[in-house]
Structure prediction request, 418 residues.
Amino acid sequence: MKRVIVFLLVVAAGVAAWRFWPPPAPFWPPPFLASKDTQGQQSETRRGGRRGGGDEAVPVIVSKAERKDVPVYLDGVGSFQAPNTVTVRPQVEGTLVEVAFREGQDVKAGDVLARIDPATYQAQYDQAVAQKAQFEAQLANARRDYERYSRLAKNDFGTQQQADTAKSTIDQLSAQVRYYGALIDQAKTTLDRTTVRAPLSGRTGVRGVDQGNYVTAGDTTGIVTITQVQPIAALFTLPQQNIAAVTKAQSRGPVAVEALTGDGATVLDKGALDVLDNQVDQTTGTVKLKATFPNAALSLWPGQFTTIRVAADVLKNVVTVPGPAVQQGPDGPFVFVVKDGATVGQRPVTVTRQDASLAVIASGVEAGDQVVTTGFTRLRDGSKVAVGSPGADSDPEDEVPSPSAKTEETPRAEGVTR
Prediction:
């Protein structure tokens, strides 16, 4: 009897356990073979319906659309070159007795750079001066003789032939004086060339010859090379599609340009556009341009690569939004506009110009509209939002930049570039 009772109790306990105990997790398929749909459902379950919560306000950062004038820039890559480079060579031969400059020194036009032994050329100059003085004395005597013979011939105390001979002597001696005057000028020029002067203002390079060496006018090395760096020129290229914009800008007056660092963040100097080349390079489809910069701070150097920014135009009183506010969808660009401070609406826009920091909107947004700049991941048309101030912390998952934004560019100033 006791065995029957114990058996019935065990059966009752098993039935109860089978009826009320939760079923165990399936052992097949294993987690690593679970389908993507199953994993996605489990992920959504773990997130607690984070994306599906229709009443949850999405934190966003907004910015107001504004009307203002926006400059249009054209960016080209080029390098600087010196407007003038001169290799200073000796024009006479002799011993270099003095080098009057330092390597890398800034010199002015006319500054003394070196001196060549002038002794030989000084002697030639003095000889020409003495010979001219000798013939000038003879010429003065011949003129006195001519005056005497002319008076005697008029009074029949002398012959006319004597007067004519004296006149011829004057002409001969005058020619000799002029000849030696020219020799003096030549000797003076040669003597002056023993003092080597800077032909232009600029910076000296490495010295080509040392003091004490014998130099000649045929030396190819030269004493030093002078490069003009103030002002300095820049040669750069632009795509041929920008030719019309540049010529239109030139028709309005001088075109301002800026020299930027490689990252485009710092302005090295400001100058003006000089020349738009008269032909397009057919191999690259680009056109050359030349600009001049004052280079007062000597921050630009010949051979240095740079980015040149050309101020091609100014868009007057246009609607602008931050560049990241413009998103790309299947139907084109759009923005999220905050309505009544609580919800957002997806609004298609027409973009005229855009870069990493600024977008010019032709239609779809008006000045004063609040557009979302951060927090796009969970936004849908009609989503509730919690507006934060610019610079506030946001969910890293929401930081999705616009596909159209050029994140590698760092514009120098507020404007749009091509």
DSSP finds five helices and 23 strands in the chain.
